[in-house]
Amino acid sequence: MNIENNHARHRHALAGCVMFIALLLAALGTLAEDKPRPRLTDDAVITTDGYRLPLSRWLPDGEPCRVVLGLHGFNDYRETFDNLASHLSADCTAFYAYDHRGFGGTADRGHWPGRARLVNDATNVAELLRARHPGKPLYIVGESMGGAITILTLAQDYPPPVDGAVLLAPGVWTRDVQPWYMRTALWLGIRLAPGLEIPNDLVDVNPSDDPDVLEYWQSHPMVIKRSRIASLYGVANLMDAALAATDHLQQPLLVLYGGADEIIPSGATCGFLERLAQTSADWRFVYYPEGHHQLTRYSGEDQTMADISAWLQSPQAALPFDGQLSLAEARDELCDS
């Protein structure tokens, strides 16, 4: 009798376990169904957590020959690429650019989203573009902060299927080359007043020599005019991480920098090139002596855009303008500046 009772109890326990597992699997399945799938619409990217990133597209007539994803810089937004994207779309290129979280037209404008979110979004959008344009070469163009995000995206253990990248004055101004007073101010600010907003014009630097671009930075409603200390601290961490991740880059790269850049110091770019030279990446460096930080939005923008277009068509081809420097030449030009 006891044996039969034990068997009955075991059967009931087993049935209970099976029921629990079935309910658990059903619940997990429901959660999986409720989780948004990343997707592209005509004017937005819907991310894995359901967040909406405003999207702009510049498409060629007919089937594109290649696809470019543009990642904008700090306090900027996606339409900053209009010059370059319009130029490239006339040259058989489909160009896409979205607003990073915390910038442009996103819901959390002015708030730093965190490095992981920025990289995850870039990864997801690159994968979506690859799926939308199968068989077409896919490149990233990253400007300033967008260049730092590009580096971190491509340096992952499992990077998205990108064929190469153009880095426009990449954000690699790390703490070890920043002035001591800047490091100290950030260290104190993040601890004492992370929400304090600093006017952008507190520091007299210009990203361009084009009066229209300078007016854009002063008055365009999508440009952030005051930066929270938490955001400044976040972008400083992002740049530190980008330089450290450079060791893991393997994709073809075109690095562009201007001699009149008032945002990213030449010493920071020099340090990045020294680090890049130790990798297996096939990289090329082009220097524009009169170039400003926004290399596709200044008086010499035609040179920059022609070089980018030529490189996208063939990363090994000769570039239209004679600005390419070897590492030794870049050291002479930048490292002692």
From TrEMBL:
Residues 63-296 form the Serine aminopeptidase S33 domain. One of its GO terms (molecular function) is hydrolase activity. Keywords: Hydrolase. Transmembrane segments: none annotated. SUPFAM superfamilies: alpha/beta-Hydrolases. It comes from Methylohalomonas lacus. PANTHER family: PHOSPHOLIPASE-RELATED. It comes from the Bacteria. This is Alpha-beta hydrolase superfamily lysophospholipase. Signal peptide: none annotated.
